[in-house]
Amino acid sequence: MNKVLLLSKVLLKNAESIWGAKKGSDWKKFLLVLALAIGIIPMILGAVVFLSAMYDGLALIGQEGALLGLGFTVASLAIFIFGILYVLSVFYYSQDVEQLLPLPLRPAHILGAKFVVALCYEYLTALVLLGPLLVTYGVKSGGGIVYYLFAVLIFLAVPIVPLVMAALLVMLFMRFTNVGKSKERFRLISGLFAICLAVGFQMFVQRQSSGGIDSLEQLQQMIASQENALLNLVTQFFPAGRLAALALQDGGTLESLGFLAAFFLVVLASLVVFLVVGNSFYFAGVMGISEAAAKRKAIGKTAFQKLVKQRSRLLSYFWKEWKILWRTPAFLLNCTLSSLLFPILALLPLLARRDSGELLARLQATLQGEQAGATSLAIAFAAIVLLGALNSTSVTAISRDGQGFFYNKTLPILPQHLLLAKVMPGIILSMVGMLVLLAEAVWLLALPGTFIFWAILCGIPGVIFINLIGIMVDLHLPKLVWSSEQEAVKQNFNPLFSLLAGLLTGGFVVVCVMYVEASLFATALGLFALFALLDAAIYRLLVVKGPKWLENIED
Q1: What single DSSP character describes residue 61?
Q2: 515: pLDDT confidence band, cut at 50, 70 and 90?
Q3: CA R_g for the chain
Q4: Which of 137, 375, 167, 93 is nearest to 247 (CA)?
Q5: Under a CB-based contact definition with an 8 Å cutoff, are residues 246 and 258 in contact?
Q6: How many helices (H) and strands (E) does the chain have?
Q7: pLDDT higher at 176 or 226
Q8: What distance in Å separates the CA atoms of residue 109 and residue 111, rounded to the nearest whole number?
Q9: Helices (H), 328-373
Q10: What is the phi/psi pair of residue 158, to 5°?
Q11: Residue 23, pLDDT score
């Protein structure tokens, strides 16, 4: 056990997490914590209000335990989905795998340490999803010290079972297939699978919750016929969550202690299965994982001349950044595809409802004609800016280079052009997302052509603004030490700063437009002029100060 903990500590330090920041960066830590607090606290408060209302409603029918079951199920599903990506990154595609194999370590030590590393990442997910739930339920139910003791123990154990399920799925797949050497393609497929699984579950829940009167009557009959009926229903996907919910529902009783013991027996059994299966399949599947499969193709003189083209230095560097974004699955999933996925994912919950036609008709009637005025334009502008902030292409442009960033200092390209080439892909992708979002609005809401024109006119400088802010954040807080591309984008806190800037900018614009009460034409020109000037000022700042900021970036 001691070797497992020591190895886990070493692996976590190598991951360059927030607690492993360098000395002399206290102000960066402070800004990071402040940004996290500003971004997370309102979300947590909203979750607490929502959970409190749900508890009150369920308590009226004596089914408040279903709230715990639902929370454990949602958290377990999220941990399982993220677990697939974490297991791939930590167990297979980290650069320390083959360095650990010759060391005097037992297989259980390596498996246990890597599981602890992945589990630490999952605790962040569990904290966001389960923290507000457990505290809210404890306050509303009047839980005492026994409840909170049980809650802490269950919180620490809940992520284990879904993470084991994800690890077993990945290890079995990697052992009996040879896709490990095509790791880039496999990362992309697994990431898309995880996204489809999450969206499918969300649409299923959304459609069931918007069911008709027949399903409601059936639900009422089921609730009246059996105790904890809702709890049994919502924990069908992860039965271990039912044991955890029952242990907390009547904390301190002899029956709850039995449920708690049963829950921990399930957790312990899952760990034993993980070690047994991992010892048999993990090391056979990880051997040679650093090798890459490639197609060898002879290129003739004529074909080579077509491949080699003379371009400007700015365009050449931009083209290099663009190709890397599309060819690296971690960057493709988290940067490139996000411009297309976020507008679509935002639309799916609405379309999944059985009454989506009525909702769209009411929304269309509200926005038609004179109602689609200045306020609607401000909301559309805020949505475009927020969509650009959710795209982490620009805010991770320097971080994605990793240790290869320092090679940029040897290239014959001006620092200003280098920064411009790095921010251009983010601007292009954000504009594509803007067009997709507006196309959805035209298709579903039949908005006037003039409104769409003004939205595009205002959106272009807004998109440029949020991407320039992103590159400035990454200039000052680059994450250059990472062992996999996934860490550069998924375990990078810089996108939170960009998201915070997008939220503040969009909120400020909406509030100001509602207060001023200007016309649509005046609002459009005002927003365009304001953000065009801001873009010019930030670009000038990057031209003047950017070279010095680049030079000050150290390992």
Answers
A1: T
A2: confident
A3: 26
A4: 137
A5: no
A6: 23, 0
A7: 176
A8: 6
A9: 329-331, 338-352, 356-367
A10: -55, -45
A11: 47
| 514 DSSP assignment | H
User: Which residue bears the tokens 């809702």?
Assistant: 230
Q: Where does residue 408 rank: exposed (0-12), middle (13-18), buried (19+ CB within 10 A)?
A: middle
80-89, 192-201, 390-399 — which one is most confidently predicted on average?
Answer: 390-399
Query: At a CB cut-off of 8 Å and minimum separation 6, what does 405 contact?
Result: 398, 478, 480, 553
Judged on CB neighbours under 10 Å (0-12, 13-18, 19+), 525 is: middle
What's the CA dihedral at 226, 230, 233, 235 to 10 degrees? -120
Long-range contacts for 264-268 (Cβ within 8 Å, ≥24 apart)?
264/153, 264/157, 266/161, 266/240, 267/157, 267/160, 267/161, 267/240
| DSSP state, residue 340 | H
Place of tokens 């271990």: 240
Query: 359-368: long-range contacts at Cβ-Cβ below 8 A with a sequence spacing of 24 or more?
Result: 360/444, 360/445, 363/445, 364/444, 364/445, 364/446, 367/445, 367/447, 368/446, 368/447, 368/448
Give 405-438 pLDDT, tens digit per residue. 888 878 888 888 899 999 999 999 999 989 988 8
**What dihedral do alpha carbons 248, 253, 256, 261 form, nearest 10°?**
120
Residue 483 vs residues 15, 90, 370, 400: alpha-carbon distances, Å: 7, 9, 54, 11
Residue spans of alpha helices (H) in 88-159: 97-100, 107-141, 145-157
pLDDT digits (tens, 9 = 90+) for 526-542: 999 999 999 999 999 99
Alpha carbons 278 and 228: distance in angstroms, whole number: 37
Q: Which residues contact 291 (CB under 8 A, 6 or more apart)?
A: 181
Least Cα distance to 144 among 257, 252, 261, 254 occurs for 252
Instruction: Write out the two tokens for 412.
Output: 């014959």
